[in-house]
Amino acid sequence: MRVWGKISEYLLKPLNKRVILVVVVTVIATELFIVTDIGPFRFSIGTVVFVYAILSLNHILIIPTAVMVAFFTLLLRVGFDYFFWLPREYFNFMVAHQYSGVVYFMLLAVILKLGGIREGARNISPALVLYLGGAVTLANLAEALVRVSPGEIFTPGNIIILILMSSVQVFLVTSLVNISQFQKTLVLDEQQRVSYEKMLIIASELYDELFYMQKSMENIENIMAKSYNLHKRLKELKLTDRSVEHSALEIAEEVHEVKKDTMRILAGLGEALKIRKEKPVMNLSEILDLVIKTNRSYSQSLDKKIQYNLRIEEDLEVEQIYPLLSILNNLVSNAVEAIPSEGHIRFRIRCRKSILRIYVCDNGDPVKARDKNLIFTPGFTTKFSTEGVPSTGIGLAYVKGLVENFRGRVLFKEIEDEKCFIVFLPVKNISGG
């Protein structure tokens, strides 16, 4: 029992399972063959399966796999003859008649191994196709020579059939390889697209932090200047107790150190955003699709049913991807939070006189009249957590500051039963033109 357990464990290893699958499918496929009326050749699908497996599965050893395929092919064909076709006293004849399959697979495997076929399999080139064609043709020829005399084989008609049928087998193999490579390319492209979208979201969040840190730099500069001016004034007063004067200088020096550290962080964030900007530009429609996809997931996490409607009158190329993502994500996430359980968020994109107009409208809870003039004020909020803790109230203030950085403006309007934020941006400032 322990021996069988070890055997089972060995056979169930991932690589061994693949080898077993290749052997089983190839052996079964060898019984799907074409026998020509003109020549003494038998062309099976087993060749296609075997060569395709060798080209596609890099970890499979060519010669050992061919040995197993040859052995079990012989066993299967002799078994068919023994139990279904011939009297059992002809067993030796059965083996002698069917061992041509062993010759075929062993010769084919040796030729493929010697030719280093896997190194060229990454790209189906004419040289690879010719080499495969030659290998399959030689293997078919060797198998036929085991079955019949050379005189029956080397005739013009038989040679033509041999070349044509070998070409068909190679065509099927290369077609399967191309299809599998195309599917792998599609999968990789999809993975790269998802990775790029995640990178953009992360980068836009980094841009948020970068923006705030740049704003903070102004405050740091002002604090440092005031501290140093205070030190100078105290020094001019020539006070008996100079500890206050020294304290003011120490504050100025410490603020200066904070400034240098902040500048290093800003430089690192800026460089990270520059490195991760894999595409120089994105279409506005691509950015909006990404915003919708991200916020659809957010709304689902809040158990809200929200319809997203998008209307783009003119699709522009945008170079300032991260700030525009930040603007739109803030506006749309606010809209998601304002909708109680069901609703819609509507986008409309227009371009008039080189000014891009972005409308983000929702039918969520209305804004109270007394709050309309305060919504862009830093710290103002109407959102509270379940524990009663207010939010930071900087989202819309951040949007306003970011839009104004691009010489644009953002307005809030109520249109019928919708709340709308309208962003005006000069096209040249976001397109890099």
Brief characterization of the structure:
By secondary structure, the chain is of the alpha+beta class. Helix content is 65%, strand content 12%. The protein folds into three domains: 2-154; 191-275; 282-431, 2-Layer Sandwich (Heat Shock Protein 90).
Could you explain the architecture of this structure?
The structure is a single chain. The protein is an alpha+beta fold. It has 3 domains: 2-154; 191-275; 282-431, Histidine kinase-like ATPase, C-terminal domain (Heat Shock Protein 90, 2-Layer Sandwich). It has 15 helices and 9 strands. The protein has a 5-stranded mixed β-sheet with strand order 4-6-7-9-8. A two-stranded antiparallel ribbon has the order 1-2. Strands 3-5 form a two-stranded antiparallel sheet. A hairpin with a 2-residue loop joins strand 6 (342-352) and strand 7. The termini are far apart. The model is unreliable at 384-392 (pLDDT under 50).
Please outline the helices and strands:
Layout: H1 2-11, H2 14-29, E1 33-35, E2 42-44, H3 46-56, H4 62-85, H5 91-98, H6 100-114, H7 117-120, H8 126-147, H9 150-153, H10 156-237, H11 243-275, E3 282-283, H12 284-301, E4 305-312, E5 317-318, H13 321-338, E6 342-352, E7 355-362, H14 395-405, E8 409-415, E9 418-426, H15 427-431
Parallel strand pairs: 4-6
Antiparallel strand pairs: 1-2, 3-5, 6-7, 7-9, 8-9
